[in-house]
Amino acid sequence: MGLIYGMGEEICFDSYLRSLVNAYQQWWRLYTLTDATGRESQRVGSDRIAPAFFDFGLMVQTVDKEKVESQKEKGEEEKKEKIERLPVLDGICKYAAEHVLLVGRPGSGKSTALARLLLQEAEIALSDRNAKIPVLVELRYLPSEANESSVCDRILAFMHKHDPALDIDEAGIKQLLRQGRLLLLVDGVNELPSDRGRVMVNQFRERYQKTCPMIFTTRELSAGGDLGIAKRLEMQPLTEPQMQQFVMAYLPTQGERLLRQLSGRLREFGQTPLLLWMLCSLFQHSEQIPPNLGMVFRAFTVGYGDRIKQDVTLSKDSRAWWGRLLQYLAFKMTCGESLTELQVAISRREAEQFLLEFLRGKVEFADDCAVRWLEDLLKHHLIQISNDRIEFRHQLIQEYYAAEWLLGLLPSLSDARLQQGYLNYLKWTEPLALMLELVEGEEQAVRVVRLALEVDLRLGARLAGAVRECFHTQTINCILQLPLQSKLKLDCLALTGSEKVVPLLIQALETQVDVRWHAAYTLSKLGSKAAIVGLFQALDHLEPDVRNKVADACKQLNNEVALLGLLQVLEDQKCSVRWRAVSILERLGREAAIPALLKALDDPNTSVRKEVASSLGRLGSEAAIPALLKALDDPNTSVREEVAFALGKLGSEAAIPRLLQLLDDSDPNVRQRVVFALGELGSESVISGLIQALDDQWSVVRVAAIDTIGKLKSEAGIPGLIQSLNDTYRSVYNTDRSVCRSAVYALRELGSESAIAVLVKALEHQNSCVREAAAHAFGQMNCEVAIPGLIKALDDKSAYQSAAKALGNQVGSKAASAGLLQALEHHQNSYVRGAAATALGELGCDTALT
């Protein structure tokens, strides 16, 4: 239990592991925006859930390095070939040994996932002495002047935090790393305080790459690099159902009102657990939803301070300065010690100096106020002390406050200063985007976007969509006026994420082929209702390969708005458009699509009805059963086939009487599908129908019935199977071979004494294919009673080879060995002797050596 050997003496990690379990048992409290005393958490009563504790079922998606590097050379379909979706903990555990980078938006659950994994692995290590010892390494706390020992220092600090008496030093840590005894959970590659630290962490990773499993997290691949890690996992945004479930669980009495107010905008506000929680917390107190994300942050932070109890003891005038103090603190931390680096954790002395710098000349006794008011903020607001460093409770909160300070600076910044000091650096992208959502003047908003486009097209396009919606037309015009190639301009329009670009992209579907494909794919990625409706209505004007690629891209959609668009497409006049919509709705797997799909079972087009029936079966909704039972009367045989098969997939015994009636259908393919459906249902009540199908005129139906009886292992079917062994030609379209063989293998599946007796007798059947199949069947079984018959079958020119193999599989049987040896020594047929020799080799018995 947590014992490590090989360092001169035994080290016991039990106390450390138990401390981890105790500390992380309530992991959801570690990564929520609560104050130090847990004031928000204490309000979580029976009518609300702790925000991070809700099991979102977060997913990750693999991203291969080859995909990223070949993005320009390969088509979108080829890039998708290696994509794999996994639950987040399954994914990071699966690839930890080869080192994995977990990438995700702020608030998407990366740090929470590490906390859950830390708890899980600590519990395992307490019961399994061979399990690896988990350690959390938070890169934000590395010193700016990081050296070779810095990561080991953080490992030691974390271990001693949870077990101060643990007798281990840096040399011991390095030995554990070389021995592969640790599992490192390395959080915050994007939060490394310096380029030097990044180089040092990469060198550390490479040094222990072959011995120590590591999991790294980062905000995005462009922020802090990838440390050369080939395997990347991307945190997937929350789906609409996940968001809705959380809203209703967190706000059981207000959730419906929140969802109605959002009216399709849930995706905009709630793609990550943290943002969704903020939205719900805000709505709980105000029952109002601000127009954009920047306003959500402003309302949340203002409300957070206002909700602090009035009887809380504060320094004089402290509360009035909180907002401005936090803005300046966030701004200075984002400025960092160099133009390219930011700080997410600073010393108390640095924080006091920043506040003093701001307060000097504004209040009396500024140095005293800086000290006391910082203490008030630490006790009651959105900053905290962790590992002796001061930080905002989440980097998103720091970015919001920095955005507020930038908003005040904006009018005084020259174009050159705005570009050179802010737009030119990645660390300012998020604060700038949040700031633009707060900018009230059109002139300033358009100015920032125009200047950003001069610095970087992608940045400018992103910011063009970040301005208030009423300014979108003007900022999109900034992109349209640029002298860019058509495809590049479409990419920029898509990056805005604005609904205003949808008509422009639909219009581009009428241009040259390569641009049409690009516009179509871009529309599918936007995923809005207008984009999906316009795209599907235009699909038939596109080339077949383009249509297929776009349809595949649409299958990745998972938001409610796109779903509404697809449901509208089901009403389209073109049957090909309706068919594609059905296939994609199935891939979405959404319960909300069921009513529309049920209605589409009456579609005038056969292909659409068939696709609907097939989709309903795979979706597995019992609500579809009544409509599918009615659809068994469809005039088209292929539709009836799919309906029958769908009912079998749904597994409802209520469908059995109607399916049994359909065994008299005029089409043999329908009857075959009915038999398979009855087999899926697996009830004893279907056996009589299956026995009836053994007399069907068509062999495909009889074979299906035989296979199903074998699958169900029904003794009642044995008489029918015996009859099938004697099957004769019933029409010029049928052959007895498949029926006879299927009957033999069904008896083998039954495996009962009575079935074995029939198979033994079948070794002497008048039909050679029956004899050969019976011998082959015994090759899959260890059956002593069959050995005499198998030895006799060595003289059968049709069955000798299968009989020899079957004897060779009778492990430990002296009788089988003796029969094979006799054939090897005395049989006249050289082929039989060869088969006997091969079988004896497979048998591997001592008798063969004599």
Characterise this structure.
The chain has 850 residues and is mainly α. The protein contains 47 helices and eleven strands. The protein starts with a strand and ends with a helix. Residues 34-53, 65-81, 728-735 and 845-850 have low confidence and may be disordered.
Mean pLDDT, rounded to whole units? 80
N-to-C span: 52 Å
Oligomer: single chain
Number of helices: 47
What portion of residues is helical? 55-70%
**Strand order in the sheet with the most strands:** 4-3-9-5-8-7-6
Structural class determined from secondary elements: mainly alpha
Shape: globular
Observed structural traits:
850 residues, mainly alpha, two-stranded antiparallel sheet, 11 strands, 59% helix, disordered C terminus
